[in-house]
Fold:
Amino acid sequence: MANLSKRDQQYLWHPLNQHKLHPEMLGIVRAKGSILYDEHGNEYIDGIASWYTCMYGHCNDLIVEPVFRQMKQLDQIVFSGFTHEPAVKLSERLIQILPGNQQKLFFSDNGSTAAEVGIKMALQFHFNQGRKRQILLAFEDSFHGDTFGAMSVSGLSVYNGPFADYFLDVERIPLPTKANIKNVIAYLKDRLSQNNIAGFIYEPLVQGAAGMKMYDANGLGQILALLQEHDVLTIADEVMTGFGKTGRNFASDHLEIKPDIMCLSKALTAGLLPMGITSCTQRVYDAFYSEELSKGLFHGHTYTANPLACTAALAGIELLESEEIQENIQRIIKSHQNFDLEIKDHPKVANTRQCGIIYALDLNIKMERYGNLRDKLFKHFMDNGVFLRPLGNTIYILAPFVITNEQLRVIYTAIKSALDWV
Ligand SMILES: *Cc1c(COP(=O)(O)O)cnc(C)c1O
Structure:
């Protein structure tokens, strides 16, 4: 029989891909811990934790076993009119680790829908109170997902041209820097006097898809404070930053001002099953709580709060809170700091940055986001047994918390040897 890569090409259509230019997909047959195994017997270190999901390692028994037990107990039940122990337990556990103002959880299926629900909460929050606020605010180059609402608020809509006419009404502000924050605040003060902005969605501290762009917490804090004063709901999209990656449980933990709404997915379920959660404050929830049916949030997905996904999330939180994982996070942070000293002055390196276990560097070379040189870099890493996914001229590491020092060294060596020829 032909290999997976050949059979794949007959019927499958892959995400974020132009199949005429990139017809070949690599067949992966197995994964364990930080290692991926392909169908030719090659191994790769998963340097990006399969898009920041399997932070406790692939096929971790401490995640898989409880889910397997749950599978035999209760697989799926409609979450409208019914409830179940995994969802209840998860809510009790997740609320403990979320910022203290988060009081209610709304389930959906992925990061885009978590953002979508956050946007709907913000719009309906004002609608329910008879206020006409229909504009959303977002950062330039942000990424919040690929469904229509999430796509609309994403500034990074490189290839979204065909849909641009159907986007929600969104205005943008630049990422805050020490140099521009005064101007941004002055602009917002003026803009907010029109009282028509419903909500502000942002990726706290790190913009993932933009190339792990990191920005000023202090400036963000000032923006959030001003927006909350004007009753603009603040929506922290922590789909990428959530669950320990920034060195704290959530990026919002680094800030004094807490968001009104939070979007969670990716590492939420430890990479085992898809699920999204949108959390909010009591105040947001109360704007929907009414004798009028129509004031409820009429949004629902078939697999809402799937018991298996909830069980995986619960097991993930237990791991995140464990001493072992917390020590690993500190170890990886230190390891990246040492690596940074080795390469930050390299002539091919324009700049480096780190937030928790997220490490990124920009090459001193102009490159297209999905161009030829970028593809050559990707291949270089794979040939060296490392799965990294450069974004334009940005190379970043976001490895599982269980990665060993030896595996980290392999990643660092692959990056250094790329600098020799790039
Ligand atoms: C990945 C991502 C999303 C979208 O999540 P999906 O599960 O891919 O739909 C939204 N926001 C951020 C910040 C992300 O990193």
